[in-house]
Amino acid sequence: MLTAIVGINWGDEGKGRMVDLLSKDFDIVCRYQGGNNAGHTVINERGKFILNLLPSGILREGVVCVMGPGMVIDIRHLAGEMARLREAGIRISPDNLKISDRAVITMPYNVAQDCLEEERLADKKFGSTKRGIAPVYADKYLKKAFRMGELLDMARLSRRLPDIVEWKNLTLEGAYGSKPVTAEEMLAYFQEYGEPLKDYICDVGLFLNNAHKEGKKIMLEAQLGALRDIDYGIYPYTSSSNNIAAYGPIGAGVPNLKLDKTIGIMKAYSSCVGEGPFTAEYFGEKAEKLRAAGGEYGAATGRPRRVGPFDVVASKYGIRCQGADEIALTKLDILSGHEELEVCVGYELNGKVLTEFPFTDVLDDCKPVFKTLKGWNCDISKCRRLEELPQAAVDYIRFIERECECKVRYVSVGAERDAYIEL
Ligand code: GDP
Fold it and tell me: What is the model's pLDDT at position 299?
């Protein structure tokens, strides 16, 4: 069985927490796109963990984790992440972590390129996480990237290096006037960080197909949300890969397998990191309060996130892009303590109210149309059954289901593993 767990909004919906919770029912958890620009926060009985590259399933004994061919992997960062988890007592070995030989390696010069470009853009910058993700995906499609499988044959790799380094220096030195890199440096880098990974690198597609035949349950874990998908998101304020569920089997190494189910993770209010249109955005005191209540600061970067109320227009579109069969609504507890709650139900553009998400370039001119719902004043973080929630919270969930034409299956009311309600 193949299930995708994906973000409906701008990312940071609490996917890490839901994957950690749901992974109890899965044998394998696979990440299928993106790199260490992701920041998944998981809190469980062993502590608080921030995962950038490793699938969240790594925290569960008995779950095998897979890093799929659609990923870009910064091997130095991975070494650090593995070391930190091991220090916390998490077991990581080639039998519970498999890395695709086809996954692309994020190079130190990709990170440098990312920083150089943000510097060049100065006040026009996009707000890149500066982890080299856009440059490495660009290299992949220019067919100038290195892949994890190449680490298994350093002699062959070292023969390919000089031409690529020469080409990359045209950009680093020629375009940005920065320090060039040398093939020797890069080879030393591959040896230092690549050697220890050799036993983890394999054909994950074969592994997953065999597991699938044996009836194993496989979860595909996305990074970021539909509104950040390179093709369907708010371009160019997107990530550099496809995070939508339809890409899951491809990015995981199993293009032959069909998804059995897609679970969409959707936050009970909105948050967004970086630049770009964010129609329902709150400002000033309203924003400060919501940001502080929700702890909306980037897990990977610490940046304060932009926040706003739940956005029906954007979420309905996100659900459509993801083909979500059911929804996990997260962080409902954060909305406690308000007499009234606003929800964005339309975008006003040139005197008309849009209820479907438009071509993203016009978002700059859209103004939010809010509807006010009744709030609730009590703490709901201890509720474990729908009947225990105040009626206003139940009505809020039902309103979202109706407006977004989706079925809410889980409601998360706290960061801890058991703080959720199954409907
Ligand atoms: P991700 O990248 O989608 O995993 O999102 P984040 O890293 O931003 O995780 C969301 C944050 O909210 C983390 O600190 C979680 O522990 C926390 N969290 C997740 N679900 C809930 C919830 O239902 N209630 C509360 N209060 N916190 C939550």
Answer: 67
53 CA → ligand 1 middle, Å: 17
* CA 43–ligand 1 middle distance (angstroms): 9
Q: Pocket of ligand 1, candidates 8, 17, 310: which has the most ligand atoms within 8 Å of its Cβ, to mutate? A: 17
Structure tokens at 374: 């009744």
Q: Are residues 296 and 383 in the same domain?
A: yes
- C-alpha 40 – ligand 1 centre gap (Å): 8
Domain boundary (161, 176, 197) is at 197
Selecting among 12, 114, 139, 311, the annotated active-site residue is 12
114 catalytic per annotation: no
Q: Quick check: pTM over 0.90?
A: yes
Q: Half-sphere exposure of 387 toward its Cβ, with a 13 Å CA cutoff?
A: 0
CB atoms under 10 Å from CB of 311, counted, come to 28
Closest ligand 1 atom to residue 48 Cα is 16
Q: Of 257, 317, 230, nearest to 30 (Cα)?
A: 257
Residue 201 has pLDDT above 80, yes or no: yes
Q: Tell me, yes or no, whether 117 and 62 share the same domain.
A: no
pLDDT, residue 46, reads 81
CATH number for 142: 1.10.300.10
Same domain, yes or no, for 97 and 186?
A: no
Dist CA 180 CA 22 (whole Å): 46
Q: Which domain holds residue 210?
A: 2-101+204-264
Domain CATH number, residue 254: 3.40.440.10
